[in-house]
Amino acid sequence: MLANYGYKDGSGEYFITIDTEKCNGCGACIEPCPEHCFQIGSDENDPLRDEPVAAVVPGQRQKLKYLCMPCKPAGRAVNKLPCEEACTPGAISHSWYHVLQR
């Protein structure tokens, strides 16, 4: 399942998506995030899941446009963000990052 954390406003869509099918709850995304946006715990979208999964900290979800800005690629660069690089299963993506690739 794709879990989208973030918001949409007049300037765009700012979501971090975590593919819970791929996420193994390893926590590798936590350390490279300078804004401490990630947590590991139970899956709020799937209460029957026993394994831990990554999620965006509830208090950070409405601030992602600003919190992720220092890591966001400049211009049309296609470099992955630090949290995406650290996620070896490839479970993390950012909505505005992919818009930049077009």
Overall mean confidence score, pLDDT: 88
Round the Cα radius of gyration to an integer and report it: 13 Å
Q: Report strand %.
A: 25-35%
What order do the strands of the largest sheet run in, or round the barrel if closed?
A: 1-2-5
| Strand elements, count | 5
CATH top level?
Answer: Alpha Beta
Which word captures the global form? globular
Give the N-terminus to C-terminus distance in angstroms: 25 Å
CATH topology: Alpha-Beta Plaits
Q: Mind telling me which CATH architecture this is?
A: 2-Layer Sandwich
Give the H and E element order: EEEEHHEH
> What's the helical proportion of residues?
10-25%
Overall domain count: 1
Uncertain spans, ≥5 residues at pLDDT below 50?
98-102
- Give a short account of the largest sheet: 3 strands, antiparallel
Structural class: alpha+beta
Please give the count of helices. 3
Structural commentary:
- The structure is a single chain.
- The chain is of the alpha+beta class and 102 residues long.
- The chain has one domain: Alpha-Beta Plaits.
- It contains three helices and five strands; from the N terminus they run ββββααβα.
- It has helices at residues 64-67, 82-86, 95-101, and strands spanning 2-9, 12-19, 38-41, 53-56, 92-94.
- The strands form two sheets. The protein has a three-stranded antiparallel beta sheet. A two-stranded antiparallel sheet has the order 3-4.
- The radius of gyration is 13 Å and the shape is globular.
- The protein starts with a strand and ends with a helix.
- The model is unreliable at 98-102 (pLDDT under 50).
